[in-house]
Amino acid sequence: MALENSEDRFSRRVFLTAAVAGVVGTAGKAASGRQAAEKPHEATTQRAPAVKFGRDWSQIKGFNYQPSYGSSGFELWQKFDAKTIEVELGRGKKYFPHMNALRWWQSWDSFLRDPKRYARNFATTLDIAEKFGLVVMPVLFNRWHSPELDYGGIYIDHFLPRVSWVQRPGMFDAFLEALVGRHKDDPRILAWDLCNEPYSYSCPREKIPDIVKAETDWLKSLYDKCKKLGATAPITVGIHPGVPLEMIDPISDILSIHPYWIHNSKYAKKEAYEEKLDAEVAFARKVGKPLLATECCWGSLDDKVRVESIRYTLTQLKKRGIGWLVYLLHHSLIADAHRPEFGPLGFPGNLAFIEADGSLRPGHEVFNEF
User: Fold this and answer.
1) Fewer CB under 10 Å: which end of the chain, C or N?
2) What is the value of pTM for the model shown?
């Protein structure tokens, strides 16, 4: 999630995103026209790699999922509870009968504790998802971090050469072999998301070129390894709004964006938001790849405000033929996925669609309108 934790910390990213959108989005519309931008799949399905994967990505209507019982990726997988997961996904299917996919975050940290146990639990998640007619996009690594409740995952220490003694050759290979290698042609895999929100920096990328290059090299090594393992499902990288698609295009078979309409930011402008979407559609068509929103629908503690944000966001995505994996299906103890009584919250507020008691959050059946 591109979730900063105060307006001050958040403002710089939003301002830059809006500024870029105003320039790039206008150029995208001038080049292609509004009518073509609204029907990206008519263009992309005529070119590789969209045909290769044989799926209408505009029909993906699903959620990100984090089980309720932990506040970090490590904790969620260490306390793996198949029964709770089955109950929560059952609730999701009950309230949102047409949902068809999940983006499910992994934990390399937990894998290191007991690789065999982790591999079994991962296979169990696919079994449970299949029971409810859901395909899964595993998120292999995470680079989004929160000062309120950090999710854990990958830090600069893991990929910047010579910066830390934690690095070693092939340190991620066993994890990729256990998940991607063992499920290389598993039809229940929608796609492999290499990393959630890489390039999450608090300063301009041009000021830290060595770090940017190191992160790019790391992502490229993951992509190459997955291909070498024989992954047949497409590979992607879920980027936050401040990262241009050009950066991850070479290591993405499908393009993944996180188009949050950040309604509570002083920089929020619908025109800029919509222009940026148009530019991203135009870029996807140019390179001949499907475009998918792998996170969207900003949060709020106010249910009515959140519902209107969801309605606006999904309206704009549907208008452009972009499928989505909304954030977040169920109450969880992770950052910004619960009511205030369950823990600290940051700038997004509560992003969950289903409450802790299993009830549907008021008004959140709006998902079914789309």
Assistant:
1) C
2) 0.88
